From TrEMBL, chains A, B:
Protein keywords: DNA-binding, Transcription, Transcription regulation
Keyword set includes Ribosomal protein: no
Record's protein name: LacI family transcriptional regulator
Organism of provenance: Winogradskya consettensis
Coiled coil: none
Key word Kinase present: no
Record-linked PANTHER family: LACI-RELATED TRANSCRIPTIONAL REPRESSOR, LACTOSE OPERON REPRESSOR
InterPro entries hit by this protein: HTH_LacI, LacI/GalR-like_sensor, Lambda_DNA-bd_dom_sf, Peripla_BP_I
Domain HTH lacI-type: 10-64
CDD domains per the UniProt record, alphabetical: HTH_LacI, PBP1_LacI
Length: 341, 341
DNA sequence: CTGAAAGCGCTTACAG
DNA sequence: CTGAAAGCGCTTACAG
């Protein structure tokens, strides 16, 4: 680090000295609230420019109580849904002049949750947004004290104390399953992603749709979110002869399932139909192109910021987002006559 | 936001009062530097627990000069390489007790860069890490004053003033091209991703390898990083008859290229070989499984944090990371006898 | 070991 | 319009 010696960052007093005015005057120029004479304003601006001054947000936050950081607590940052939601949060935050501080909750045990929450709360936060996509998210949400403003992105409504940008997982599972049933499949198997403690909404929707149709409810297979684990699940599925349609917990898993089935010598959708969840950018380029429940994660992230900043309330509060819809592509089809019998 | 009334967060003085001690004593318990009598320590701990006290990092940063935020300036957060790098940064930061604040540089124009940099510098930063993967990154790096500690993740060495975790793009392009040439292809076409202002290192490596082998250097096709634009490029490539091998700027683009070629009626690798860059998690599940230059982005991110915290210096400083290596899978093969002639 | 005092860099009343 | 003063929540010498 010797390569780049750091100067002491200039502070307000340096600017004041360089401009020949008092400290409060510089502050006024910066905030623009009170009028400042033109000549002083000009001198101050020039001094700021020359010194490369940037106000110290810590000091500012200390006195105004104004916080310019939105904390995000999440179990992951790289998977499609997570990354897109974070992208939406960052966009909305930036346009509100806020920065996004991310803390990953690395595990669901008490220590990890407590450490992550403590780390986040150690910052001067305007509020925190929790991605309640998994257990880590749920635990983090529960561990947050009521001294911070909180909003969540969730698939299930809570107790109403915390505003949530909701995606209607349950409805999605129901719709996707009914679509597959409507194609003529006797039942639909489910390859599940980890839920946030309890069964995921999409799994519940899937189960209810089967029951409502009087279809048998096969035991769901579990994955760890990865395409690889979807692949492994598919290998098990391929050994059975009662499988004609599979609904996957997300698209990455669906990609793995398709590949696994293909490697086992089965054709998708001719032998088995596969549907996913999320509408991953690669879904339309997969072979076959993946039928999936599309969700607008970035919009969800933006809504959460809206809730946090108090710009969204009322009927949008905990109301399911209307952005969920089925995108039918080539990975689903009616069962083959033989299998459908 | 009325759903969840906020209490005023407890401050040190509240804890001191509750524990019946002075403010500095609480501070000492927290920091653990100076000895504090056991009974007072216990009372303080209890008060902290009961009140749910979290120290105000802004106030702490103000007096100690210790900053607990690493700012990350990046052009994107969702694409594989970016997201993985950020993941590595977050991991290393968290284990050092730091939080990661992300600011996306939305565009390369001066206003956008200045706004993003200003937003980031407005925080009490321990330092900033710039992802120099694109023009936005380069511009942001250039716009940073020398009052902040900076590290970058880059593919090209700089002037030595800023520590960079390097990935040797240039070598990667060279190696991948030579591998394809070694298979017997007369030349290799290139579908490029946007560089950071100048041609990307991988493109340079590709070009040099062709020249060194005396192979013709076809004009590269440009994309915007997306699989979709790779698909479009493939459609153009498919119309030519001199294409037998294609090196893509990244895997997402390669996925699109493969799909585009297939949709145009060509077989990969029988008619045309395709190789990518990065080793995206879906590369091994693609059909055909993608041959690609693997890069350990998370490690790059961790190194950048190491540089920033001054834990990494000397020979690792601006030294290419050794993690770049070719992973040969099924998307590449020798040219067909006819085409190779 | 522990408390009173000073100060980090800012902003906000308070006087002029 | 503008400066001197006080204070945000902490930590760090300084005295005891």
């Amino acid at each position: 680090m010797t390569a780049r010696p750091l100067k002491r960052p200039p502070v307000l007093a340096d600017v004041a000295r360089a401009a020949g005015v008092s400290v409060p005057t510089v502050s006024r120029v910066l905030s623009g609230v009170t009028r400042v004479s033109d000549d002083k304003r000009v001198q101050v601006m020039r001094a700021i420019e020359e010194l490369g001054y940037h106000p110290n947000a810590a000091a500012r936050a200390l006195v105004t109580g104004q916080r310019s950081i939105i904390g995000v607590l999440t179990g992951d940052t790289t998977r499609y849904g997570y990354a897109s939601t974070i992208q939406g949060i960052e966009e909305a935050a930036r346009s509100a002049g806020l920065v996004v501080a991310i803390t990953v909750v690395g595990a669901a045990d008490e220590d990890a949750v407590r450490a992550a929450v403590g780390l986040a709360l150690g910052q001067p936060l305007a509020g925190v947004i929790v991605l309640e996509f998994d257990i880590q998210g749920s635990r983090a949400l529960a561990a947050l004290p009521d001294t911070v403003a909180v909003a969540a992105v969730s698939s299930t409504a809570g107790n109403g104390r915390i505003p949530r940008a909701l995606f209607d997982d349950h409805q999605g599972g129901w719709d996707a399953t009914n679509y597959l049933l409507g194609l003529g499949h006797r039942t639909v198997h489910h390859v599940a992603v980890p839920g946030s403690g309890r069964p995921s909404g999409r799994m519940l929707g899937w189960r209810e749709a089967l029951k409502a149709a009087g279809a048998p409810v096969p035991r769901p297979l579990e994955t760890d979110w990865t395409a690889r684990s979807g692949y492994d699940a598919a290998l098990r599925l391929a050994k059975r002869d009662d499988v004609t349609a599979v609904l996957c917990g997300n698209d990455e898993v669906a990609f793995g399932v398709i590949k696994g089935l293909q490697d086992a010598g089965l054709r998708v959708p001719d032998d088995i139909s596969v549907a996913g969840f999320d509408d991953h950018p690669l879904a339309q380029l997969w072979t076959p192109a993946l039928t999936t429940m599309a969700q607008d994660f970035a919009e969800l992230g933006r809504s959460a910021v809206g809730f946090l900043l108090g710009r969204l309330t009322g009927d949008q509060f905990e109301a399911p987002s209307a952005n969920l819809h089925l995108v039918v592509r080539d990975s689903t089809a009616p069962p083959r006559p033989a299998a459908a019998s």
